[in-house]
Structures are given as structure tokens and as C-alpha cells.
Amino acid sequence: MTPAELKIYLENLISRQLKISTMIWGPPGIGKSSIVGQLTHEHKMAFVDVRLSQLAPTDLRGLPVASDGMSKWYPPEFLPRDGQGILFLDELNMAPPAMQGVAQQLILDRKVGTYTVPENWFVWAAGNRKEDRAAVFDMPTPLANRFLHLQVEPDFNSFKAYALETGVHEQVIAFLSYRPTLLHKLDPQQPAWPSPRSWIMASDLHKAGLDLAPAVGPGTTAEFVAYIQLYENLPNLTPILEGQGNHITFPTEPSARYATAIGLAVRAASAHEAYNAFTWLSQTATPEWVQLFAVDLFRVMRSMGQMGALAALIQKDSRLQTFLKDFQQLIGL
């Protein structure tokens, strides 16, 4: 499933209060733990992220302390005691078998030693696959059989939706729109390689005017640098956003078209600017480019709280009525 589909599935587990232990599988850097963190924020739940590969069995079971002639296990302070939230066991299969055995008690019985998981907490886990060249151990069959297993793969549309809403640099979004295969490309020969996680870091580097190679590797950076040189030949987008773009034509080269469509969607600072860009593109570009732009624009406007104002402007414009029918579902996203 895609990251977007994973988020929907996990949201259903929360809304239906299905406290079934769940294992999320996928390559590194695609946002597995970030999605879980987003859900806890959106649902106003607590989030305890436990990296099992960094713990010893006693770190999870607790320390034995003598009391009245017996040993009692004193559980660690990081385990939740009350409230509602998600106990997230990250890097589960990077933990050695002894550690996985202790985690199995927590997953199966919702308790370990003298500690019991509170009733309103979910127990989820995540891990990488062997084909991802991660240093993982085989998961014991009894442990695997205690989980729901969700397989997630990198997906550009899911990443772009997140990037548009969180302010990832427009040139990064435009480049990956043109070269989506570089969203996630594991290179075992390089310490730095492109993934959704490293592109977020690359965006911050690019905003600061720094080299992207430490985040996404030298090869990908060379392609990115060549691509952004296109921006010197793009049409001036400011007149288009101001409603004065009648003399400007839509580029003919596909890479420049992606850059123009993404640039207009990201730079529209209000419903009126978005409407002007929508009008211009509907007059100068073919329907598939208008639809690509509209999906991105509506996401940006929704994140700004301007979607209602934009929809009202579109509905009053008879020239856009033919497009409006096709975009009704997108407007309601």
C-alpha cells in the first residue's frame, strides 16, 4: 500500500478502537514512523516511540529489585501508565532475538514483568525488510503470527501531498514530479541516497543555499542542479498570479511545464491569485496539465484555509464551468 493508504488504514484502526497489534513493513526513509506520529497529533493522542534495537531485555522488562524476600520487576519510566496513545515499537526486527522475545510478551499479552499496557493504548511496530539491506533478524513465527502485517511502498503522490502541505521547496517538488523514480532509490554503495526522508532534509539544505549531496547523494544532486537551471528560462509567474498573463505562453518542454505548474500552485498566496493561475492555465495548457495543476493547487489552498473562497470564484466563472465538473470531486477532498 502507499503511505496515504497506510494512514487511512491506521486511522480506521483508531476510529474503530481495534487494538490489534500491527506491524508496518517497508524500506527505510519512506515515513513509517512519521505517519504514526502524524496520527497521534491529529487525534490528540500520546506517542511513545521505543527503538527496540537500542535496548537490552532488562530495559523493557525492568530491573529486578529485592523486596520482602522476593524479586520484583520495576518497569522503565518511558512506558505509558495512563491516558490514550500509541506505543510504537520501532526497528522491531533489528532487535536481537532475546529482545524480540521480551517484546513478544508486550505484543501478545499487553504486559511484561509487572507492567501492563493501559487499556486505551494501541501497540504498533515497524521494521525494514531483508531486501532493503537493513541489518535485521528473522522475526520468530510465533511473534509474526501475533501481528497484522501492513506492507508500505514509496509513492510520489503521497509524498507530494505531504510536501505541498508542509512547505517543501517548490523546486524539489517540481524536480520529483519530473523524475519520480528518484523519490526513493537505495544505493548500497553510498551513505547518502534519495528517499522521502532525505528529500525533506535536501529541501532544508536547498532553502539555505547548501549542497544537497550530503542528503541525497552526488548523482541525484547533479541531476537536480541541471534541472533547476530550467528556472532561468521559465515564464515570469508573477504577472500570471496577478491576472496579467495573457501575453505569456505555457512552455513546450515537459520539464519546464512541471516547473511552471508546481510553481504556480506553490506561489499562489490567496484564492484570487490561485483563481488567476487556474484561469491562465485553462486557456494555455491541455486538460491533463490543468488537472495536474488543480490537484496540487487545491491541496495548497486547503492547507491555507482558502479552498472555499477559491471554489466560489471558480463557480462564478462561466469559462471554467467545463473544468469544474471534472474537478468537483477534487474540490471536496
Shape: elongated
**How many strands, which pairing sense, and closed or not: the largest β-sheet?**
5 strands, parallel
Helical stretch tally: 16
Order of helices and strands: HEHEHEEEHEEEHEHHHHHHHHHHH
Order of adjacent strands in the largest pleated sheet? 2-5-8-1-9
Tell me how many strands there are: 9
Residue-averaged pLDDT: 85
Q: What helical percentage do the residues reach?
A: 40-55%
Percentage of β-strand residues: 5-15%
**How far is the N terminus from the C terminus?**
20 Å
Which structural class fits the helix and strand makeup? alpha/beta
**What is the radius of gyration computed over CA atoms, rounded to a whole number of angstroms?**
24 Å
Number of domains: 2
Low-confidence stretches: none
Tag the structure with descriptive keywords.
single chain, about 325 residues, alpha/beta, Rossmann fold, 2 domains, five-stranded parallel sheet, 16 helices, about 50% helix, elongated
SSE topology sketch:
Blueprint: H1 3-15, E1 22-25, H2 32-42, E2 46-51, H3 57-61, E3 63-67, E4 70-74, E5 85-90, H4 97-109, E6 111-112, E7 115-116, E8 121-127, H5 141-144, E9 148-151, H6 156-166, H7 170-178, H8 196-207, H9 213-216, H10 218-228, H11 237-241, H12 254-267, H13 271-284, H14 287-304, H15 307-315, H16 321-331
